Amino acid sequence: MKRKLMTALVSLMVAHSLTSPGDCLAGGKISFGVLPVMQALPLFVAQEKGFFRDEQLDVELVPFNSGLEKDAAMAAGRTQGYFGDMLTSIILGANQVPMRMVATVFNTTGDQRMFAVLAAPGTGKPSLTDLAQQGIAGSSNTIIEFVTVKLLQREAPGASLNMLEAKNIMTRLPMLLEGQVPAAVLPEPLVTLAEAKGALVVADDRGLGITPTTLLFTREYIDGNTETVRAFLRAVTRASALINADPESVRPIMIKYARIPEPLQQSMAIPAFAPPSVPDEGLVSEVYTWLRGRGILKKELAPDDMVRRDLLP
Q1: Residue 230 maps to which CATH number?
Q2: What is the mean pLDDT of the chain?
Q3: CB 118 within 8 A of CB 176
Q4: How many helices (H) and strands (E) does the chain have?
Q5: Which domain holds residue 178?
Q6: Rounded distance between C-alpha atoms, residue 131 and residue 162, angstroms
Q7: For 182, which DSSP code?
Q8: Does pLDDT of 18 surpass 60?
Q9: Residue 5 domain-assigned?
């Protein structure tokens, strides 16, 4: 009898050990890379309000100060997923670790903007074409250059862009305000801060829907933890709904986690977040084609190599 009991217990333990992490939502920890930006607010809200925990998830939001650090951690396997722009998502997935975008969490719809080209204070009202010839501070082969090219094409198709390399956003702002460069591309909330200090917005991406931020997981993690990823997205969807229903209630969370300049912390409008959606197929194709055309992306990818479409609630 004892021997049969021991055999049964051993069999049960072996069966439990063979259960994949995806079969038990509480069975594994998700390390998810984030940046201290407003567009990641649904992730911070889901964490602070316990929405991940309600889904029986153990989520660690791993903060990074730059996209480069975040990408390096992802490539090294220290995180299973991350928040990022569509360009770096595709580049990382093609060159370092197979990734899948699982959702878009923010986009520049309606009157919302994410990036703007600003002229230095005291330079009058130059056109975007003029500034493109004089030089715009930004970062080549990134979302910064992509959005600037797209804005320029709307004003002057065929015009060339003189991109002045200034990869560090926090040095790009003083360069603009001190007149060291004719113009610069900045993200929110630095756009609003620069405007308050005399810089002039010449063009921005509001209403264009060309700069979505996305959530990604490695292909390997998704394949082994499909239901866990779905639960993660349910928590984020719930957080987005809360932000839209009562934005002021999450302002303390935004101030705590997003890099909001002190003068704007109480006045900066909290953006609206549409429910997480599948990344737009047309835009994914456009970004992919742009990267291939510039020689940034050498590997051929099919749409299903970049996006997983069946995980949203």
Answers
A1: 3.40.190.10
A2: 89
A3: yes
A4: 14, 10
A5: 115-204
A6: 8
A7: S
A8: no
A9: no
Contact 140, 163 (CB under 8 A): yes
In 3D, which of 307, 191, 160, 161 has the Cα closest to residue 260? 191
Question: Which of 167, 185, 204 is the endpoint of a domain?
Answer: 204
User: Has residue 209 got a pLDDT over 70?
Assistant: yes
d(CA 233, CA 211): 20
The tokens for 8 are: 């049964």
Task: Kindly report the number of other CB atoms within 10 A of residue 90's CB atom.
Answer: 28
pLDDT band at 23 (very low <50, low <70, confident <90, very high): very low
pTM, two decimal places = 0.88
Residue pointed to by tokens 């480069």: 68
Separation between Cα atoms, residue 244 and residue 247, nearest integer Å: 6
Coil vs helix vs strand at 64: coil
Token readout for 309 is: 């479409």
CA distances from 5 to 1, 2, 18, 97 (A): 6, 5, 20, 45
Asked if residue 145 lies in contact with residue 199, where contact means CB atoms within 8 angstroms, the answer is no
- CB 238 within 8 Å of CB 245: no
Per the CB < 8 A criterion, the answer to whether 134 and 264 are in contact is no
